[in-house]
Amino acid sequence: MDASEKPRTLPHIVVVGAGFGGLTFCRKFPEDAARITVIDRQNHHLFQPLLYQVATAGLSAVDIAQPIRAILRRKKNLEVMMAEVTGFDLAARKVIHDRGETSYDYLVLAMGGRTSYFGHDDWERFAPGLKSLDDALEIRRRVLMSFECAETESDPQKRRELMTLIVVGGGPTGVELAGTFAELARTVLVRDFDRIDPSKARVLLIEGAPRVLAHFPPDLSASAQRQLERLGVEVRVGKHVKAIRHHEVEMPDGEIIRGIVIWAAGVSASPLTQQLGVETDRAGRIKVLPDLSLPGHPEVFVLGDLVTLTDPKGQVVPGVSPAAMQMGEHAVKLLAEEIRGRTSTTNAAAGRAPFVYWDKGSMATIGRSKAVAEIGRLHFSGYPAWMAWLFVHLIFLVGFRSKFSVFVQWVYSYLTYKRGARIITGATGTPPAGSA
Amino acid sequence: MDASEKPRTLPHIVVVGAGFGGLTFCRKFPEDAARITVIDRQNHHLFQPLLYQVATAGLSAVDIAQPIRAILRRKKNLEVMMAEVTGFDLAARKVIHDRGETSYDYLVLAMGGRTSYFGHDDWERFAPGLKSLDDALEIRRRVLMSFECAETESDPQKRRELMTLIVVGGGPTGVELAGTFAELARTVLVRDFDRIDPSKARVLLIEGAPRVLAHFPPDLSASAQRQLERLGVEVRVGKHVKAIRHHEVEMPDGEIIRGIVIWAAGVSASPLTQQLGVETDRAGRIKVLPDLSLPGHPEVFVLGDLVTLTDPKGQVVPGVSPAAMQMGEHAVKLLAEEIRGRTSTTNAAAGRAPFVYWDKGSMATIGRSKAVAEIGRLHFSGYPAWMAWLFVHLIFLVGFRSKFSVFVQWVYSYLTYKRGARIITGATGTPPAGSA
């Protein structure tokens, strides 16, 4: 048989990570141009922007998670593998994982970020972060258990501590958590308990920068702080916590605040970026070339929270899901063209189009009817911003099975102030303080 | 001040356990007749009859659980306490728990059952039972993870073992699990995977008695077995497993079957029954007096799965939720009458009305459109039985917040054969065999 008659084998693309970047790549890549294997250590894609709602018992885990296999079921030439990637052999073009290794022609790295404690890894067990479903369920468990313990605690000082929640970090996640917890205590839990008064729960938000939501314009930061304070949240800005211990935080002036501690102060790129032999920033993010490729490896693309990049327009690309999705689309466009046009990739990186971020605006929600939003030059606060936030997130959930369920839960929650997801599961983890 | 002028303090009833028995008691007891404290170690009531649907990824945890505080929010003179009861002081009328102790005038015991391994407690870690939400999530995790591992397993023998599910125990729970797993593999998972063929998954149901559903009439047992076999389940009756080890079961003839093992063979009463100094049966259930009171303690009532009793009609009261609920109502009636009529409880037990069980029928579901039902002298199988089962469970869910959500999930699942709850959470527990 003549070798030239053999059907041309499709190149093999390995995508590591099925977050917004990786998943967008998989969904948009033309099915007939390559075989794709997507590897993730979880079996589900997570709708990260609503993770705080699982932590605050507003939504249940399945509302914001969807099996990767189900999302990509209809894609031809695509395989899903649940495995933990442990390393790369860039020279031999192989991904190494706990189920073996997988060879590639092209590699797309989209492992995303993880909670970072800025070198204080010992703080992790005292102050969980919020990156996975398990994190969210753990935070929910700690908060609800702590209120349960307060209900039977006779010492007023201890009871007060069990009803104190300290959120470290005033970025969007910290603001969302603090606002929603304050609201949960004052409107929902307040009707659940007999002896304690959850409306007296103390919620603190501690931020090292001079203002919350430091990446937003100053007027919106100020508005966010006012809206938080109206919910009863104590906002302390310009304070870096000095230490975190079991059930307590030490402030720079030595003040000790006791309560449940949640960490929302730092995110860094997956530690796998350290194995690639390229330059990274302090948060482990890769300094990619303008086309999103790995320096020296035009066959490797890097997406989303793994990337630090200033685009040709001078915009610093933020670590948000729209940016990750746009990067996924950019990589699809470049790679599909090259594979079809048989462009040599050996020195292709130089001639490729650079990635340009399209900033659709930013928003952060603070509670029911409370939010801030920046869309172009327009700044919104309060109810209009919240409506915009609600609208954008419902649109984003398109294609996501749980859209209807999320909508039902929200409407239900909005109308009744009940929280359907207030269930404690899992007996593992640190017991609430004061229970000893 | 004259003592006779003091407002009469209400007697204090402590209810231990917020399952069907305890919760019915709390809901039905007249608010003005006593103060009630209900103690449970979980913060939620569980709709046990649908727990197998959480294990088989058909429903999510919140669909079948509801916070106890939310259910009983509107009851006056009632407090909910989340605590683990560790013992009783019947002479001093005190309940001892991990948050302290609570005195009572009347005590209602409704702690329910737990998985029993018939003295083989070492089997527990190899073969989880199905009594709590955490159990259900653990079983789901094991099964889904095992299929994920099969997908990347190259050894055909190991792959086959990773796709083998062994359910030990052919009562209603075992039949429901085996039938639903077979259906899940053949209709849902079959479309998720690329390399393995989940329709070739092997599901075994092993029962020690000569037939499955031994408490049902023989014709329905035979029908259930036929319906299971039609789904591809291998049913082995009259076989007591000899041993259970990591990822394998040893049959009486020495045959070794390797696969994921799930235990549905035994339930016993809460071990707290052993502390009461009264006679119990082999499964730890209390031989109560005909009025449901504890022998020698007319101020203590025992409900639900804690009880072994033959009623005046000669019916052995079964360990099912309708029986527990009827017992709760019976205790309400007797206690409310006594408290209002100031009947002395010292020797009241003798004069009290005995509990009579009203058998509304029994049903077990096997899969989509497959079930058996016995209502009086009528025996149903297949589709009519399944419709009856569906109808009864929807009616039962009345008052339960999740009714609408369960209904939506079911309809969705029925129409599309998708499973929205196919999410793996929690990294704890035994790793699936073959992954090492």
From TrEMBL, chains A, B:
Q: Which InterPro entries match?
A: FAD/NAD-bd_sf (IPR036188), FAD/NAD-binding_dom (IPR023753), NDH-2 (IPR045024), NDH2-like_C (IPR054585)
Q: Where is the FAD/NAD(P)-binding domain?
A: 12-328
What is one Pfam family matched by this protein?
A: Pyr_redox_2
Per UniProt, residues of the External alternative NADH-ubiquinone oxidoreductase-like C-terminal domain are: 360-415
User: Which major enzyme category is it?
Assistant: oxidoreductase
A GO molecular function held by the record: NADH dehydrogenase (quinone) (non-electrogenic) activity
Output this protein's name.
Answer: NADH:ubiquinone reductase (non-electrogenic)
Recorded source organism is Opitutus terrae (strain DSM 11246 / JCM 15787 / PB90-1)
